[in-house]
Amino acid sequence: LIIFFQSLVMLACLWLPSTLCQTSSPQHEQLKFRLAGYPRKHNEGRVEVFYSGEWGTICDDDFTLSNAHVLCRHLGFVEALSWSHSAKYGAGTGEIWLDNVMCSGSETSIDKCLSRGWGNSDCTHEEDAGVICKDERLPGFLDSNIIEVIAKHNRMEKVRLRPLSAAHAARMPVTEGVVEVKYKEGWSQICNVGWTARNSRVVCGMMGFPSERIQAKKPNSHRSVYRIHSVACSGNEAHLSACTMEFSTNTSSACPGGGPVVVSCVPGPQFSNGRGRKSKLNHVRLKGGAKAGEGRVEVLKGSEWGTVCDDLWNLQSASVVCRELGFGTAKEALTGARMGQGMGPIHMNEVQCVGDEKSLLKCPHKSITAENCKHMEDASVKCNIPYMGFEKTIRLTGGRTQLEGRVELLAPNASSLEQWGLICGDGWTSREAMVACRQLGLGHASSGLSETWYWDSSNVTEMVMSGVKCRGDEMTLSDCQHHHVVSCKRAGAQFSAGVICSDSASDLVLNAPLVEKSVYIEDRPLHLLYCAAEENCLSKSAVRANWPYGHRRLLRFSSEIHNVGRADFRPRLGRHSWVWHECHRHYHSMDIFTHYDLLDLNGTKVADGHKASFCLEDTDCHEGISKRYECANFGEQGITVGCWDTYRHDIDCQWIDITDVKPGNYILQVVLNPNFEVAESDFTNNAMRCNCKYDGNRIWLHKCHIGKS
């Protein structure tokens, strides 16, 4: 019936232009969609559309579930569960872009549906439509669903600190200056009459600083244009536009008895003069983000790290996290595991911070049970951080896109912007590439390349850095270890380092409790170990054994390797480069996928094993996620986001040969992707350690933990 009616309407469009017609946007118009309003969860809210350079809403007249289906797909969800009328999530602002929208539900875009046309409405914002989407993401949909600062952009486009002098401007970050607000006609100042430290706290938070200094210097004489007066903030706002203030329409408005606002901010330890030093141990951390100041929120309770559920997650709570970690306020409070799903416990739910708490753990919240939340609801943040200008000292050349190329650094002490140099490719891995992409502001690393002869498009030939070795969490390559004097084994620009950057990356994590539960010892006859010996899965003493008689003592356990990132984990080499192993009759897509080590209490290795990726595939996945990779019939190998690859305890090489190990106390260590062959968003969670007790006949594991847990 709806389709029949729509057909009649389309015929009517030919004769009566004032009736409902297709909403087609102008050619090249890029529509954007978001959910807004409060209170709400990440998969529901008032629908807002970005059209013609402005955000607006959709009227609820004639709204149906079919409309909601189309809009939810725009937002990255598979379908709609229901919709709401009469501004359930609060009245919006700005234009009401669409009215009397009628979709069949199969349209690929809302502008393919019928309506009165863009900007043609007889509604008020009390009729704004909302949707509730099914909490299941479309495969490959990466855009974040953001709970945004509700800033009145017509009043305040941008805020900056203008340094007090040229000397101040030369130092990064700029911590002190005149507060200026951007308008279409230029920059203007704020009158400082009635200005308080709480107001300064808000401005400093926007600039990426956790706190303000009480005293600020007076500016040099400078002609001021005042547009904002009588600002009054509580100090907990995430953006100055959320404070009350008076606006002047007169561009030459005076500030009787005062002058322009000047603030002075205190930088966090990562951005202070001693930038390399470690900050104090926090009970909160961010994981999985590409840039400094962003990631999945994790909290330490007892001795175990866990995540935060996104119910009621907002900018106030997110800002407490950001300030606690030495950043400014939050610019985005992200829900729905937008920075990847965590593992282990979910420690907090329905967090409701006021905004002045010193730690997230001090905020009112609920402890939860498994029924309340799942890791698909893990909360994340993007914090305001100070501008440091790091990207000005690094560039990429020769690549096919702006995301790839040979890495060039501005030479130390360069007096000219043209004095660029190369990085020696010796030892360059995806960990170093991760830092390079972060410094460039290009997200995660997809690959780190130690040869770049195919990107030879620059006349830069001098090596200015070598021996680079990064942890992976540094903000710049100069923060990593490197040679004081350049020393490169392979001369020539073709052996310089390169990167391919990406907006997403995989992240492998081992299921530590399963290792602890599944461990046992097997005395395996030598005649069953010929294939394992061929693949170097036995200790060196095995070559002296009396084959095929006797046995080897094996420490066996199961491994369940989860991909909790935002991109599939794929072998670096394509199928044409995989190696066939006749004995086990399978392809190896990676030379080394996992290291298994038994260490003494001093950290010295007493026995080891290694595991080539016999076959990377999706053994199982979380609900709603489909398997993509299967090894049978020379299939594609990998681990899908939200899936895991299980290596059972009873398959070949899933062990450490401990035939020569004496009884005692040891440490079992398992390291995934040990050579950093494949890029990940986080390498600090690739290692698992367990305390191990071996009495000569039996073995026990306890306190198995990931990374720095």
Automatic annotation (TrEMBL):
Disulfide bonds join C59-C123, C72-C133, C103-C113, C191-C255, C204-C265, C233-C243, C309-C373, C322-C383, C353-C363, C470-C480. GO terms for cellular component: extracellular space; membrane. It is found in: Secreted, Extracellular space. One of its GO terms (molecular function) is protein-lysine 6-oxidase activity. The keyword Iron-sulfur does not apply. Residues 1-21 form the signal peptide. PROSITE patterns: LYSYL_OXIDASE, SRCR_1, SRCR_2. It is an enzyme of class 1 (oxidoreductase). Its EC number is 1.4.3.13. GO terms for biological process: collagen fibril organization. The lysine tyrosylquinone cross-link (LTQ) is generated by condensation of the epsilon-amino group of a lysine with a topaquinone produced by oxidation of tyrosine. InterPro entries: LOX-like_protein, Lysyl_oxidase, Lysyl_oxidase_CS, SRCR, SRCR-like_dom_sf. It catalyses: L-lysyl-[protein] + O2 + H2O = (S)-2-amino-6-oxohexanoyl-[protein] + H2O2 + NH4(+). The keyword Transmembrane helix does not apply. Residues 33-134, 159-266, 284-384, 394-502 form the SRCR domain. Gene3D superfamilies: SRCR-like domain. Its cofactor is Cu cation. Keywords: Copper, Disulfide bond, Glycoprotein, LTQ, Metal-binding, Oxidoreductase, Repeat, Secreted, Signal, TPQ. Mediates the post-translational oxidative deamination of lysine residues on target proteins leading to the formation of deaminated lysine (allysine). Belongs to the lysyl oxidase family. This is Lysyl oxidase homolog. It comes from Astyanax mexicanus (Blind cave fish).
